Structure formats: structure tokens, C-alpha cells
Amino acid sequence: MTPRTDCAAMETPTLEKLLREAARDAALSPSSHNAQPCELALLSSDEACRALAGAGAPLGEGVYVAVALDPARCLCALPAHRTEMLMSGGIYVEALSIALAARGVRASLRWRLGGVPPAVVRLLAPWEPLAVLHLTPAPVDAGAVALLPLLAARRTNRSPYRSEPLDPAIVEAVRAAASRAFPESSEECGLVALTDRNVLVRAGDVVARYGALEFTHAAAWHETYAHIRFGPEVIRQAETGLPITHLLAKQLPGWQQALLRVLLSPASIRALRPLGLARSMARQSGTLLERSGMLLYLHFHAEDPSEATQVAAGGRLLATWLALAARGGALHPVSVMMQHPEPRQRLISELGLPPGRGFFFARAGVPAEEMPPAPRRRNAAERVRTA
Ligand SMILES: Cc1cc2nc3c(=O)[nH]c(=O)nc-3n(C[C@H](O)[C@H](O)[C@H](O)COP(=O)(O)O)c2cc1C
User: Fold this and answer.
1) 106, 19 Cβ separation under 8 angstroms
2) Which of 14, 64, 153, 163 has the greatest CB tally within 10 Å of its CB?
3) Which ligand 1 atom is the nearest neighbour of the CA of 28?
4) Which atom of ligand 1 lies nearest, measured to the CA of 84?
5) pLDDT by residue (tens digit) across 314-366?
């Protein structure tokens, strides 16, 4: 890459500094398996400027930034993981847009997946650009400033939730939450928030019946297991992945973590299948869901949405998650139910959900316990690459 020469305007150093600061906040965004597949590239090399100019982007003001997926970090065991990675990318774009707006930087979506100019795609390979944002100075956005602390406070909380009826204001806020980066996502996907106890019981039953797929689908479990972190020291050092103590929502001594590392290995899961370990874990998951305050279901209206729509859905999802966090709520996704066609269909038929491709299913509510932050890749600001 050749360094930037003349294509960017005067304020580039400030915008770049603010981008790096915002990258630290965006790094806190949730991703499936905590794989953190997103990378940031500042498009400011001579080559990038030629590519941008060739594609008709005005170069006089601001800077251009690409949010890209790193294929080496992407989950791939199931076709549905592609959707999860695209959504994780959309979540990241949403978080970055909030973090920038809170610092007086507008991030306008210049191109999105499917429309990124080929010269920019080539420049970033093997990373896959999901969105190219044009950053320009703007007044500090007070709404974004209010959301900023929530990016850090939000958690996936896998502890039990209070089962008493939820404050209707929480349910309303979740239904109304809209993406800032992808406003169109409110049209492209629907959100169902269910609080009726009978429906929750029926949903818990479907989870109990199908949840074992999480462990019994060999390729998927192999990949999931590789993301689980066992042992206090390993967890302390981890930058990605799922601490076993977070998955089980409890503190465990080192020896128990070592035992679980063996018990949950793909070989043990296969060997112990006749004992019903996977089914028993699925039943527990169903019970947790049934006793939560609310069930969240997000779906595309279309059966086969474009990949750009799947990225945009991530924006809606983060907006929903932050709306919960703002009111002391949390959620716990049960993605296995969206990853396989049969449970996906069962949920629609047994709960009377709207048609269209389901892409997110979670229990939600007010958790009984707080959860510590999950591991994160370090040096987010320094990792912003210049392309
Ligand atoms: C698209 C998506 C799917 C997820 N699916 C699951 C899931 O099935 N089970 C689960 O326990 N967590 C799930 N998570 C939560 C992630 O594991 C979590 O975001 C990550 O570990 C980081 O933790 P944090 O959300 O507390 O920051 C999912 C997250 C996303 C974005």
C-alpha cells in the first residue's frame, strides 16, 4: 500500500483519530461465538483514492472507511453461519456509527455489500467489505452520546431471568427500536416480542425437542467447541470466544472447567450420546426460556433476503439489544433454533409466528444476575488498517 498523498482533505488527521477512538467502542459489539470477524480499513492510499475516484466518490471532504469481514475469523460450519456473520457485521457498523456520531462524525453509507466497487473489493482482499462509510464532520449527536455507555454495558446474559411480567415500557421500547445505520431494516425485517406465558411454555417445549442439535450436529459442535475457553488462565488471556463460566453463567473452579473440557469435547459428546447429555442440556435451555420475561423473534419478510439485507438486520438487532440494556434488560440468543430448517419451521407453526425467514431467536428480560464482560480483541484502535 502506498501512503496517502493528496486525495483527502485537511481534517483527515482528526477524523482518523476519532475513527480509532470509535473503533474501541465498536469492538465491544456482540458477534456470534464472539468470533469478532470485523475489521476496519481507512481507504486513504493512492490506490484507494484512485479506486474511489474511479467509482465516482467525491474526494474533497472527509474520509472513506470500509467495514469488512475477515474470512479467517468467520464461522462456516453451517449455511446459517453466513447470515450470523453478516448480521455480526451489521451490528458492528451500527455500533461504529453510534460511536462516531457521539464524537461529531457522520458516517454515511456510501456502498454496501453487493454494490462495493470491484477496485475497492480487490484492494481489501481477502477481507470482504460489507459497507463503505463516508465520514464527515457533523454536530455531536446527543442521542448517540446517550447510547455510548450502553455499548459497554450491554451483555449476553445467560443467567435465569425474572419470570414476573415485564414492564410494558420495556416491551414497547424493544418493538420501537430502530437502526441508525440501516433505517431500512425496519421495513425489511419484523420483530415479534412475545410475553404470553402459554406461548413461552410452548416455545420452551420446541427448544427442549430441538436444542440438542447444537451438540449432535458434528461439524457445528466441532466449531463451537473450538470457540469455548476453559480454565481461569485461558479465560484471562482470551481475546475471542466463549468462556465456559459465561456459557454456564456461574463461577467454576479450575478442575471443574478441566473436566468440562473433556466432557464437552466432540469425541465425548459422540460417545455419551446414548446417555442423553445433549437432550438434558436442551431441556434445561427450554426451561430457562419458558421462565424468562419475553421471547424475541426477528425475521426477514422475504424467504431469501439479499446479503445486504442480512447485514442491515444486524443494525436492527443491536438497536433492540441496546434498548433492552437501557432499561436494565438483557437477552440470551438461542441460535440453534434458527440454524436448522426444522426447528425454524416448528417455531412458526407451533407459535403462530409470521411467515418469512427467521434469523434471531432469544429469551429476554431482566436477568437475576449481572454478567462480566466477554473477552475482546485488544488494540482495536491500532488495528485500523490503512488501505
Ligand atoms: C448473531 C448472534 C448469534 C448468537 N447466538 C448465540 C447463541 O446461540 N447462544 C449464546 O449463548 N450466545 C449467542 N450469541 C451471543 C454471543 O456469544 C456474544 O455476543 C459474545 O459471546 C460476546 O458476548 P457479549 O454479548 O456479552 O459481549 C449470539 C450473538 C450474535 C450476534
Assistant:
1) no
2) 64
3) 27
4) 1
5) 999 999 999 999 999 999 999 999 999 999 999 999 999 999 999 999 999 99
